[in-house]
Design goal:
This protein is of the alpha/beta class. Helix content is 35%, strand content 21%. The chain is built from four helices and six strands. The strands form two sheets. A four-stranded parallel beta sheet has the order 3-1-4-5. Strand 4, helix 3 and strand 5 form a beta-alpha-beta unit.
Length: 98
């Protein structure tokens, strides 16, 4: 799945950065699920393994690891959105702060 200028229907944005990074600025509509906890949190948050998921972080490295881990858990529609800033621009979404 490529990331174009809008989210696929039903897609979930997941920010895999730590809580402090998330609070400093996250893409509107994203949920926080830090990389070190994504394996424990994902199944209760997104039980349907066919749901389109876009993971992002600061630069794309942690989101690449998250994509690999989610794929191993059986999620079939996961994309690495890369860094928060560039993904927000691609999606025409605002960056919010807590």
């Amino acid at each position: 799945m490529g990331i174009e200028s809008e989210l696929p229907a039903g897609a979930v944005l997941i920010d895999v950065r730590n809580q402090g990074e998330f609070a400093s600025g996250f893409i509107e509509g994203a949920i926080s699920m830090p990389l070190d906890r994504i394996g424990q949190s994902i199944q209760s948050a997104i039980p349907d393994k066919n749901t389109p998921i876009i993971v992002y972080c600061f630069s794309g490295a942690r989101s690449a690891a998250a994509k690999k881990g989610l794929t191993r858990l059986g999620y079939t529609n996961v994309s690495n959105g890369g860094g928060v800033g560039s993904l927000a621009i691609k999606l025409h979404k605002m960056i919010r702060r807590e």
